[in-house]
Every structure is written in C-alpha cells, then in structure tokens.
Design a protein that fits this description.
Number of helices of chain A: 0
Order of helices and strands of chain A: EEEEEEEEEEE
Radius of gyration of chain A: 14 Å
Largest sheet of chain A: 6 strands, mixed
Oligomer: heterodimer
Shape of chain B: globular
Strand content of chain A: over 45%
C-alpha cells in the first residue's frame, strides 16, 4: 500500500540550513510535493518535483529526490524564524486517481 | 484571482446534528478534493469530484458522509448525525482540468475546523 513517512520534529538555529526528510513506498509515485502549514492555517504549496528529476531549486528551497531509495528531502537555506511551521511531504501518481498521500508532517522550530 | 475559499472557517455542532462544509475552487479549476486532518496528523484523502461527478470516493466513510459538486455553486461536504470523532479540520483543494497547465498541482483552502460537542 501507499505510505509516506517523515520525522516528527526538527530544531535549527536562525541562519542555519534545515533539511527535512521523507520516504515513500509507492514506486509508481509520479509527483512529489512539499507543503507548509502554519498554525491554524491551510496548506501552502512550496514546491514539487516530477519523478524523472533528481533535483529542483527555487530560491532558498532545494528538493532532492533519490528514486532508487524512495527518499525525498527539502533543504531550506538561511532558515528564518518565519520558516517555523509544519512541513508535509506528499505524493501522487499520474493516473486517474489524483489523490495526494501525505506524510504526518515535520514540525520545524527555528530558534533565534 | 481569489484562492480556494471555504466556509465556515469554524463550525460547532452537537452530536447528532448535521454539518455542511462549503468549498469554492479557484477560478478556472474544475476539480475539487476534500481531505480531513485529525489533530497532530497529516491530511487523509476523502473524495475527488468534478462538476456533477464523483470521480473517487475511496477515502469517504461509508456512512453519514456525502459530497457533491453541482453544476452551479460550491462543492459541499455533508456530515449527517455528527459524532465526536468527526471533530477535525476539513480541507478542500482544487486543481485545473486534466490536460490544463498545472494539472498536477492542488491548491488548498484555509480549512473548516469542525468541533463536535
């Protein structure tokens, strides 16, 4: 079955880099996503990567995909206090079923 | 261009009452998805709809829950005879039509937080 796993918590100091990791089991995953959720808010799409890519960079965000190990990571450079939030990894397949399967989220705490 | 809109943002119901949650997709989006988030958990898929059609309801509980996306108006998630275990945040997302630009992306609304007393 489908499963997406993330570590629960990460604490970093302001200015450091943060790396949030995610593993998934579905080898037919086509798109992999990172969403950010601030307290009491909805999910903000940060970035996503197609499975035939191994890296995508967007300003402070770098996504790395190791398809062989089914491992996805999100690196946030120069982490700021405003980056404190819960980060969700999600995947979907490019078939008629378009539902996203989410991990349980990683809570990022940025200390000043 | 307004994002995905959901209302109400907060809803309190007593056990046995009905809850109606509304979602208006982004302009130009014809696909709507509903997800449920229990406290301290990730989002779980419930149902995927296009206008007047349910495409995938594999995540919907078999009883008391229903969803629709009529030709006119918002998508509605309806929960009949609510129980305490229904307390959660319900998120709606929308995406462009298949074949359209950005079809692989889902944009989320702010959610409706349902509390059942």
């Amino acid at each position: 079955g489908e499963d997406v796993e993330q570590s629960l918590f990460l604490s970093v100091r302001e200015g450091d880099s943060s790396v949030i990791n995610c593993t998934y089991t579905d080898s037919s995953s086509t798109y992999l996503y990172w969403y950010k959720q601030e307290p009491g808010a909805g999910l903000q799409l940060l970035t996503y990567i197609f499975s035939n890519m191994d890296m995508k960079q967007d300003q402070r965000l770098t996504v790395l995909l190791n398809k062989k190990d089914k491992h996805l990571s999100l690196r946030i450079a120069d982490t700021q206090t405003g980056d404190s939030a819960i980060y969700f990894c999600a995947e979907t397949r490019d078939t008629g079923r378009r539902a996203l399967t989410f991990g349980s989220g990683t809570r990022l705490q940025v200390q000043p | 261009n307004a994002g995905v809109m959901q209302n109400p943002r907060h809803l309190v119901r007593r056990r046995g009452q009905e809850a109606r949650l509304r979602c208006s997709p982004m302009k130009g989006h014809s696909h709507v998805y509903w997800y449920r988030q229990l406290p301290e958990e990730g989002l779980k898929f419930m149902v995927y709809l296009q206008k007047e059609n349910i495409i995938d309801e594999s995540g919907m509980p078999k009883e008391r829950f229903s969803a629709e996306f009529p030709k006119e108006g918002p998508s509605i998630l309806r929960i009949q005879q609510v129980v305490r275990g229904d307390s959660a945040a319900y998120f709606c997302a929308s995406s462009p039509p298949v074949g359209g630009k950005g079809q692989e992306t889902q944009y989320f609304g702010p959610g409706t937080r349902l509390l059942v007393l």
